[in-house]
Amino acid sequence: MYFETQKLSVGYHRQPLIKDIDIGIWQGGILCLIGPNGSGKSTILRSITRHLAKLGGVVTIGGGDLDKMSDKELARHVSVVLTDRVEPDLMTCWEVVAAGRYPYTNHFGKLSQEDQRIVEESMKRVNALDLREQRFTELSDGQKQRVLLARALCQQPEVIVLDEPTSYLDIRHKIELLNILREMTAGRGLSVVLSLHEVDLATKLADVVVLVKDNAIFRCGAPEDVLNDSIIRQLYGIHDGTFNLLLGSVELCGAAGNPRVFVVPGEGRGAPCFRALQKRGIPFATGILQRCDVDCAVSETLAARRYTADSFSPPASDTLRAAIAAACGSACVVDSGAAIGAYNQENMELLRAAAKAGVPILTLRREALKVLGAARRFDTVRALADEAARLVSTGKGGASCPSSGAISDAIAGTA
Amino acid sequence: MKQSTRNVVGFAVLAVLLAVLFYWNINTGSVHLSLERIFTLLRWGNDGSMEGNILWKIRLSRLLGAALLGGALSIAGFLLQTFFKNPIAGPFVLGISSGSRLFVGFFLLAATPIVTGNFSPYVIFLAAFAGALAAMALVLAVSSRVQNLAMLLVIGMMIGYICDAGTDFMITFAESNQLQNFTVWTMGSFSGLTWATLGASALITFPTVLLVFLLSKPLGAYLLGESYAKSMGVNIKGFRVALILLSSILSACVTAFAGPISFVGIAVPHITRMLFRTSRPMVLIPATFLTGSVFCLACDLIARTAFAPTELTISTVTSVLGAPVVIWLMIKRRRNS
After folding, report:
1. In chain B, what is the greatest distance between 2 CA atoms, to the nearest angstrom?
2. Mutate which: A89, A111, A132, A151, vs B, most B CBs within 10 A
3. Does the structure show a pLDDT above 50 at A408?
């Protein structure tokens, strides 16, 4: 490992918070600390950069002990992008970036031709050259972060340490910043150590992730091997929702209770309906869901009940029967408009049975389906969900309480 | 305007203002001197005439003192603002001037019965320096517990009030003959400056300001905040100690020879930044010094002439001109945050 810590112990006021930290990254690699707020990520980073006195252990870079370096020597090896608010009145971006030449310039800080070239190049690499004459304090957060990164680059370090660099950035600027980091490491053999709030970004950016939880290193390794949905739930202590690593997104918990609405999902078209119902506090059931469908991942905590089938297979017959019974007993059935083909034609049977049982069918489907002659078509999810909410609250739905005979008829008709 | 052009214009304007104010200050009062006469007198020294005596014994030392100490005080304010990362810091509001005043007062009043005759200006400076450091230590001790910018100022002002109370207490119980010089001094004025005290202040101020100028590079890095400065290789501990010592020396020097002067330390660095539109210490340090000189020369002129023959204390004028600057700063800050 080019940059590593051995038995590093960090904390405040001589009280060790995290002990025996052994992490490292090779030249040109990206190491990312993730973990909940207050888990100690910043403490580790601040100890590495010597902003905080470490309480034991060694930090080395290329085999050299950081403790044996003067502040100026260290500055030539390690540079930082911090969370501190920077408000240098009247300074232009050029001046902010040029400040990074500090460890190389003479006593008066005079920039040589070479220094000026490096400043310019650093600004170019973060696409900030057009900002050079602008006042730093007048920039947007995304621009500021880029200029601060240019300043760190300008210091020509071997390792850049960034503390939550994406915190205040919108999606576009996050992507931009992370791309710059990737380019830097790939092209220059520069190593990056950073902490991130966004787990999904960490999986896409980092070569090594270090999971910090409750003041301890929880897991450590390549993100592809270390991270999965359940580890992340443990890491952040998530109880009332899910995090899906593949989707990189969070789902909240749906309304609990007996399902009042039945959603026929597929192709991810069910997801907006699920969320709209969840926001209106309506418990719902959904099926038939193929396990490989993205709707399956989304509905995990949103749906009150799910009827699933193995990937690319028809559902078990009792699953189908139970789903039809549930659909027929709902205040309404929502047809999300997903394509129906060889693997999920049972959904068609389900809709037909519900229609036959007199349950109102609300559909988002554009083209008319013969079996859904009576279905009411909606252009927006919102209008559909509002109507569903109305049906649930009035208890009307034609067959809000269908006779058991009707249901068994419907089931018999399909099976 | 390009920054380099702005710098040249800024310094040129300050130089012209300084020259005009020099002339004006020499010429204001009951005796008028022609420009030619001034040059002759400056060139050949005091010829013993009334004009010569007025120029050399009264006006020249006073105006040179105002220029020198005004510059020193402004630099002290600049350093304190950098140190506390607070635009409203200055030797007066932080109680440092009052600390000096208390110590000098104690020294003069307590020692007068024992020592007769005049004190060496350096001894008075040392008393003022000790007072400045004591007040500074108090401010630092309390401010390490509160991170709030406004609180820092409140603490500084409270420390100032405590010191002033101490000084007033001593004045109340002092013998009247001890007080004559002391009371004038304690109000703040450039009128008490003699060639001896002027020489001492020059010997203290110039090397200190030179040292401050040599700190331009770390001062520039410090603008990005302490953490960034450290990560760039600034020795933070040494730098902070240097800032405290240098600012205390400068404000103590001013207080020792001209008494406490309010608002110059806060207002001048900001006026300079507005003029030069930069925060580069290499430009700002000499510019702040010159602006401070111009500001204090102008204020002293007003103090002498506004209600002539009655003379105002210098703080009366600097407060009227400087306090609005502080109010403006507060409003601007509020709007930004």
Report:
1. 63
2. A89
3. yes
Asked if B211 has any chain A CB less than 8 Å from its own CB, the reply is: no
Is the complex ipTM higher than 0.90?
no
CA of A81 vs chain B CAs: smallest distance (Å): 8
The pTM of this model reads 0.83
**CA distance to partner chain B, nearest, from residue A152 (Å):** 9
Q: In b/e form, how buried is each residue of A319-349, taking b as 16+ CB within 10 angstroms?
A: bbbbbbbbbbbbbbbbbbbbebeebbebbbb
pLDDT tens by residue, B181-230? 666 666 777 887 888 889 999 999 999 999 999 999 999 999 999 899 99
Which residues on A lie below 8 Å from B232 (Cβ)? 75, 79, 99-100, 102-103, 155
Three-state DSSP at B131 gives helix
**Locus of tokens 């991810």:** A268
DSSP helix/strand/coil, A54: coil
**Residue B97 pLDDT more than 70?**
yes
- CA–CA separation, A376 and A356 (whole Å): 15
Which residue from A305, A315, A304, A293 is spatially nearest to A244, judged by alpha carbons? A293
Is the CATH number of domain A3-239 3.40.50.300? yes
CATH-assigned architecture of domain A253-414: 3-Layer(aba) Sandwich (3.40)
Q: A75, B233: Cβ pair inside 8 Å? A: yes
Superfamily of domain B3-336: ABC transporter involved in vitamin B12 uptake, BtuC (1.10.3470.10)
Pairing of strands A24-25, A376-377: unpaired
Sorted by sequence, the CB contacts under 8 Å of residue B76 that are 6+ apart come out as B90, B91, B247, B248, B250, B251, B254, B265
Q: Which residues contact B125 (CB under 8 A, 6 or more apart)?
A: B200, B204, B252, B253, B256, B257
**Partner-chain residue, chosen from A72, A82, A89, that has the shortest CB–CB distance to B227:** A82
For helices B60-84 and B264-276, what crossing angle results, to 10°? Answer: 80
pLDDT band at B329 (very low <50, low <70, confident <90, very high): confident
